[in-house]
Write a structure and sequence with these properties.
The chain has one domain. 74% of the residues lie in helices and 0% in strands. By secondary structure, the protein is mostly helical. This is Lipoprotein. It comes from Henriciella barbarensis.
């Protein structure tokens, strides 16, 4: 069950980092209530997103979370730099957090 949830959460990044506490709270709330992950997993994912994504991309991710994930997911609309950040998060950080891998 955790794999589809991590993929779903990571997918929301694709459309999407003002690292403000409001953005963190929005992402944490979405992760826990809408995705159904444990608080520790959500904190790990939020920390990883904040570390991996630049401020603008993190803010986009938070906006998606605020809208309940109701955003179009599109990689082609992002710059190469943004795509690199997104893939780094999806393939490195998300699995580490969702599966407890170090």
């Amino acid at each position: 069950m955790k794999f589809p949830v991590s993929v779903l959460l990571a997918g929301f990044i694709l459309a999407a980092c003002d690292g403000s506490s409001g953005d963190r709270r929005a992402i944490m709330k979405f992760c826990e209530t809408e995705v159904g992950m444990e608080a520790a997993e959500c904190e790990c994912l939020t920390d990883a997103a904040e570390e991996t994504l630049d401020d603008e991309l993190f803010a986009k991710f938070a906006d998606i979370a605020r809208n309940g994930g109701e955003e179009e997911i599109s990689i082609p609309g992002n710059s190469a730099r943004e795509q690199e950040q997104i893939f780094a998060f999806i393939f490195e950080a998300a699995p580490r957090c969702a599966f407890g891998q170090e």
